[in-house]
Q: What sequence folds into this?
RNA sequence: CGGGGCGUGGCGCAGUCUGGUAGCGCGCCAGUUUUGGGUACUGGAGGCCCCCGGUUCGAAUCCGGGCGCCCCGACCA
C-alpha cells in the first residue's frame, strides 16, 4: 500500500477525550473514530489489526476442534424469556421493538441462541462433544463506557460454547479451550495469565479469567512471580494429548484477581507480584444452567434423554487491540508485535523525486510485495521528520529507510521498531532479511 | 445511576465573569524555501460558536429547557 493513497488520518495532537495510552494512540494513529459513547468506526489501519487478531483467534479455535458459525446480532426476546434471563439481565441489554411491536434485543451474548440451535439438530450423545463458536459484534449498554475500545458498548467478541454428555467431557472441553487461550494470547506476543475467577452458582475450579498485566488495567491482580518468566508455548502440549497434567501445572501457579485474592490463605505464596491487569478472556463451565430450562437433551447410550453439560468461552477481540497497545508502546507510539501488525514493513522514501531513491524504493516495494510481505510505502512528498514520526506512531515492526545519502554508499537503513536497533545494509541484504 | 467537568473551523485551545461585526496554534490548499527526526516565509480556504426558546437595538457571552461528550465511583470480553 502506498501511503500517498492510504486513508490514514493521523493526528499530531491528542484529542482531550482520550485518557489512556491505547485510546490516545488509536486515535492519533487513525485507527478508530468514535461515533457515540462506546461505539466506534474502524478505519483502515485499525481494521487491519482487528482482522489479524481475529484470524489468530480463529486459527486457535479451529485447532482446538471448535467449529465456526455466525449468529445474528439481533435476537428475539422469546429465547431469553425461556432461559429466564430476559428479566435478569437488566439495563445492560439493549432492547429494541420492531415494527410489529415484537420485542427484540441486540445480543450481549449468545448462550440461548446457540442452545436453541443445538437442541434443534443434535439428538444423540454420539454427536458429542461439540464446540461451536462465532466472532460477532456484541452490545452491552455499559453504565459508563470508557477507555476507547477497551470498554466500549459495541465490541467484537469470540464466544465459543461446548456441549458434552457428562461433566468429565465438559472438563476436557474446558481444558482444550484453556490451552487454546494460552496459545492464542502467546501468539499475539502477550503474556496472559489465567486467574481463578468467580464460578457463580456452579462452584468448583472451572472458571478462569485471562489477564494481561498492564498499568492501566481495570482490575487489581496478584500472581506468583514465576508467571513473569513462564514460556507457555514452550510447555504447551498438542490438542488431542491428555491435557490434565498441563492444566494442573498452569492452574497450580498462583494467580488471582483482587476479588478472589486471599492474602491470609496459607496456600497463597509469599513471593507475590501485585499488579493491574486487563481481562481479555474468560472461560467457564456452567453445567446445565441453560440446557435445563431450554431442554437441550440428547439420547444417552441407554436411550434415555440426558441434559447436556455446557461451557462458554469468551475472548474480547476488539479489546485485544487496545490491550496489545497498552502492553506494547513507547513515547513515540505503538509497537506492534509481528503477529498482529497491520503491515510488516514501513518503507520510507526520504526524497521522493530523486530518481535513484525512487527507483530503489520502487524495487523494494515490488520485491517485498512479490514475496507476500505487507508493506506500507511512504511515498509522500513530506519532510523526513514527518515520515519518521508517523512511522513510529503507527508502530510497524520494521522500518526500511531509503535516501540519497545511504544510496551513495549503496546502503539502506533497516530499523527494528521495538528496540530502535538500526543497521546499514545493501538493498539485496535488506530485502533478503525481510523476506526470510 | 450518584458526584464533577466540558461542548467555539479537522485537532488543541482563548474569548463567556463585564453582551457590540469570532480569534490563536497545529493541520489543510497554493507558492517560495528547506531536504536524514514534525523546516521557514508569504498568501488562502474553512465556523448553524451543540440544539430549541426567551431577554435585548444587538447574544458564543445573560435566562429557561433539551441533547451530547469526558472524568471519579458501583458492573463487565
A:
Amino acid at each position: 500500500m502506498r501511503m500517498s493513497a492510504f486513508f490514514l488520518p493521523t493526528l499530531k495532537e491528542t484529542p482531550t477525550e482520550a485518557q489512556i495510552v491505547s485510546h490516545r494512540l488509536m486515535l492519533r494513529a487513525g485507527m478508530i473514530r468514535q461515533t457515540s459513547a462506546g461505539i466506534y468506526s474502524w478505519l483502515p489501519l485499525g481494521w487491519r489489526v482487528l482482522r489479524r487478531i481475529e484470524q489468530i483467534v480463529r486459527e486457535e479455535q479451529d485447532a482446538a476442534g471448535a467449529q465456526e458459525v455466525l449468529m445474528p446480532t439481533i435476537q428475539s426476546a422469546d429465547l431469553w424469556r425461556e432461559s429466564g434471563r430476559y428479566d435478569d439481565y437488566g439495563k445492560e441489554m439493549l432492547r429494541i421493538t420492531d415494527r410489529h411491536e415484537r420485542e427484540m434485543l441486540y445480543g450481549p451474548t449468545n448462550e440461548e441462541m446457540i442452545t436453541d440451535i443445538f437442541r434443534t439438530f443434535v439428538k444423540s450423545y454420539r454427536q458429542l462433544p461439540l464446540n461451536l463458536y462465532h466472532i460477532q459484534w456484541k452490545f452491552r449498554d455499559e453504565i459508563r463506557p470508557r477507555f476507547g475500545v477497551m470498554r466500549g458498548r459495541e465490541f467484537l467478541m469470540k464466544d465459543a460454547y461446548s456441549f458434552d454428555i457428562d461433566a468429565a467431557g465438559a472438563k476436557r472441553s474446558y481444558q482444550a479451550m484453556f490451552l487454546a487461550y494460552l496459545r492464542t494470547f502467546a501468539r499475539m506476543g502477550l503474556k496472559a495469565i489465567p486467574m481463578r475467577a468467580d464460578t457463580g452458582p456452579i462452584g468448583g475450579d472451572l472458571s478462569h479469567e485471562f489477564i494481561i498485566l498492564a498499568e492501566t488495567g481495570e482490575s487489581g491482580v496478584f500472581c506468583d512471580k514465576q508467571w513473569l518468566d513462564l514460556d507457555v508455548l514452550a510447555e504447551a502440549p498438542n490438542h488431542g494429548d491428555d491435557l490434565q497434567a498441563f492444566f494442573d501445572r498452569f492452574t497450580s501457579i498462583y494467580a488471582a484477581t483482587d476479588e478472589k485474592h486471599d492474602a491470609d490463605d496459607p496456600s497463597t505464596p509469599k513471593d507475590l507480584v501485585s499488579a493491574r491487569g486487563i481481562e481479555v478472556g474468560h472461560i467457564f463451565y456452567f453445567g446445565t444452567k441453560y440446557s435445563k430450562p431450554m431442554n437441550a437433551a440428547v439420547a444417552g447410550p441407554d436411550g434415555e434423554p440426558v441434559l447436556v453439560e455446557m461451557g462458554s468461552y469468551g475472548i474480547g477481540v476488539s479489546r485485544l487491540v487496545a490491550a496489545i497497545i497498552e502492553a506494547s508502546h513507547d513515547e513515540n507510539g505503538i509497537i506492534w508485535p509481528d503477529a498482529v501488525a497491520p503491515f510488516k514493513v514501513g518503507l520510507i522514501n526520504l526524497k521522493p523525486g530523486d530518481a535513484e531513491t525512487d527507483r530503489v524504493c520502487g524495487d523494494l516495494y515490488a520485491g517485498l510485495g512479490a514475496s507476500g510481505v505487507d508493506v506500507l510505502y511512504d511515498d509522500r512528498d513530506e519532510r523526513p521528520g514527518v515520515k519518521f514520526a508517523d512511522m513510529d506512531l503507527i508502530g510497524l515492526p520494521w522500518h526500511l529507510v531509503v535516501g540519497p545519502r545511504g544510496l551513495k554508499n549503496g546502503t539502506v537503513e533497516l530499523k527494528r521498531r521495538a528496540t530502535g536497533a538500526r543497521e546499514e545494509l545493501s538493498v539485496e541484504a535488506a530485502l533478503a532479511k525481510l523476506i526470510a
